[in-house]
Write a structure and sequence with these properties.
The complex is a heterodimer of chains A (about 270) and B (about 270).
Chain A (H helix, E strand, L loop, with lengths): L16 E13 L4 E13 L3 E5 L6 H9 L6 E6 L2 E2 L7 E4 L11 H11 L4 H14 L15 H14 L4 E5 L7 H18 L2 E6 L2 H7 L2 E6 L4 E7 L2 H5 L7 H14 L5
Parallel strand pairs in A: 3-8, 3-9, 6-7, 7-8
Antiparallel strand pairs in A: 1-2, 1-4, 4-5, 9-10
Helix pairs in contact in A: 2-3, 2-4, 3-4, 6-8
Chain B lengths: L1 H7 L7 H24 L11 H12 L2 H34 L1 H15 L7 H8 L3 H25 L3 H9 L4 H38 L5 H10 L3 H29 L8
The complex binds adenosine-5'-triphosphate (ATP) and magnesium ion.
Adenosine-5'-triphosphate binds next to strand 2 and helix 1 of chain A.
Chain lengths: ~270, ~270
């Protein structure tokens, strides 16, 4: 099983901090009301880490990710990525959205090459990179297809390949598999773990599927709504990841249950 | 049972036969009503010519160089007026749809002017621009441009914000986001807007030619009216209709060609 073969950071080498959030708050203001979407949220993501945020709808998960992407500004607190403050969106933080956001006028290959095209990377180099990523997500045969010819799962695979091909330091994913059917979803999760190991990227992942979070992550942040806060940080123990029964293993199910009860009746 | 339900099914696919049957059927019904009204004597001949008369007149016209002259002049007026309106209106519309400040400068004003009937401006335009060629082009230009600005701005604003955000996270600068996302994404809608507007251009042309011209299809219709040659009027109207249909088909075919990636493909 793939989950059994996961690479973890060795204890000998202290993990480098990639992203740090220090009491990050976000207040949305409209005419006569204010909404505290995030209330002093603190978190850390290390190099080559896989961190998930789970929590009920409206607890500020997307808001948090959009702040990391630079698409939104925090009202308070500090967020550092590679030690620098965030100045708007940039190619160092790739993002995969829940909705399908491929450029419909570009083929699969052109979509994957988009980031490189923006940087005027020479053609042969672009081709080599897009070839590699199409193979990684298993879409080599669809190089010349337009997004309208792809299924939902295939579209998200292209979106992942497109984000990775721009060579980001961090990959931000906002419920990328939320719209997929259970079988496709599982296949995508396995593929993502595989990619994460091969590419040695740092991933911040958002979901409200707790099983997904436990299966994928090294660490899970559990969030509360109204206002959005972090309730707990849970490191997924080694024995769960290396267990030959994968998701059906006793400790896996136990941990999942524990997180579900933590979120309580908010869980959907 | 199956067949009947598929016709009434919302957006259900129907066979090609059914489709063409629907098209031909309506055409036949209109023709039948017209025949009955004219030959049956429901309406006086001078007011409503028979289909045969119109067909005959069409045959006469089609071989006369004068007719083609009118057609040519009308086409050139529409083309120039419409192209100028696009040339000026589309960039303004794109700016208004992209930048909030440009929107403030352009949109409320266009919205206001749009509701002033362009046809009512014709006399004023005659005063300003005389009755030369420029006057007709001005009528078409002014009739179309405010609509174009508003519709193009709307097209641009309806481009998905997420596509723009994705491009930013892939490293796009503002300029690149405009060039490689906004402008690419808006093209199909832009072309549909042009397709709609050229129909309006023809309407304004005829208005202009009815009021002040000594050539063009509108003029030939007006001249025929003086002599109660209703068949010639019919020929004029049908010719404009056919020209409209041709441009519309041309737009539709180009749309398919240019945007094979479009979802739904319609
Ligand atoms: N642009 C905005 N303006 C005002 N309020 C907003 C805005 N975006 C989000 N919110 C509010 O902030 C809160 C958190 O929203 P957010 O989208 O981050 O939740 P989420 O955890 O991603 O939920 P979901 O699981 O449903 O995606 C919600 O109450 C939402 O209504
Ligand atoms: Mg969300």
């Amino acid at each position: 099983m793939l989950s059994a073969a996961r690479i973890t950071l060795t204890d000998a080498e202290p993990a480098k901090l990639k992203i740090s959030g220090e009491s990050v708050s976000k207040m949305y203001r409209s005419k006569n009301k204010q909404l505290l979407a995030l209330d002093r949220v603190s978190f850390q993501v290390f190099e080559n880490d896989f961190v998930s945020f789970v929590g009920p709808s409206g607890c500020g998960k997307s808001t948090l990710l959009r702040i990391l992407a630079g698409l939104e500004e925090a009202s308070d607190g500090t967020v550092l990525v590679s030690g620098r403050t965030i100045e708007g969106p940039g190619a160092d933080r790739g993002m995969v959205f829940q909705s399908y956001t491929l450029f419909p006028w570009l083929t699969v290959r052109e979509n994957i090459e988009f980031g490189m095209t923006l940087k005027n990377v020479p053609l042969f180099e672009k081709r080599a990179v897009s070839d590699r990523f199409m193979e990684l997500v298993g879409l080599t045969k669809f190089a010349k297809s337009f997004p309208k010819e792809l299924s939902g799962g295939m579209k998200q695979r292209v979106a992942i390949a497109r984000a990775l091909a721009a060579n980001p330091e961090v990959l931000l994913m906002d419920e990328p598999f939320g719209a997929l059917d259970p079988q496709t979803k599982e296949a995508m999760q396995t593929m993502l773990v595989d990619i994460w190991q091969k590419e040695k990227t740092t991933i911040v992942f958002i979901t409200h599927d707790i099983e997904e979070a436990v299966f994928l992550s090294e660490r899970v942040y559990v969030m509360d709504p109204n206002p959005g806060r972090i309730r707990a940080e849970i490191a997924i123990p080694e024995d769960i990841k290396r267990h030959p029964d994968g998701r059906d293993a006793e400790p896996f199910l136990k941990l999942k249950k524990q997180i579900v009860s933590m979120i309580g009746h908010h869980h959907d | 049972m199956k067949k009947r339900s598929s016709i009434l099914q919302i957006r259900g696919e129907i066979g090609r036969g059914w489709y063409l049957g629907g098209v031909a059927g309506t055409f036949v019904i209109v023709l039948a009503l017209w025949s009955a009204a004219s030959w049956g004597g429901w309406v006086e001949r001078t007011f409503l010519p028979t289909p045969l008369q119109v067909l005959e007149q069409f045959g006469n016209q089609i071989v006369s160089p004068e007719f083609w002259n009118h057609v040519g002049i009308s086409i050139s007026r529409v083309s120039i007026g419409f192209l100028l309106a696009c040339l000026v209106g589309i960039p303004i519309g794109i700016f208004a749809g992209t930048f909030r400040f440009a929107e403030a400068v352009v949109l409320p004003q266009s919205e206001f002017i749009r509701y002033m009937p362009a046809t009512a401006f014709v006399p004023l335009i005659m005063v300003w621009a005389g009755i030369g060629e420029m006057a007709k082009i001005w009528v078409i230009f002014l009739g179309c441009i405010f609509q174009i600005i508003l519709m193009v701005a709307d097209n641009v604003r309806s481009v998905s914000g997420e596509l723009l955000q994705v491009s930013y996270t892939l490293g796009a600068t503002r300029r690149q986001a405009i060039q490689q996302v906004l402008l690419r994404a808006v093209m199909p809608d832009l072309m549909n807007t042009m397709r709609m507007m050229i129909g309006w251009a023809w309407t304004y042309l005829v208005v202009a030619e009815l009021v002040a011209a000594s050539s063009g299809l509108g003029f030939s219709i007006l001249k025929a009216q003086r002599f109660l040659n209703t068949d010639v009027i019919f020929v004029g109207i049908i010719t404009i209709g056919l020209l409209g249909l041709l441009t519309d088909r041309a737009f539709a075919i180009c749309h398919k060609r240019f945007f094979p990636w479009l979802e739904g493909g319609r």
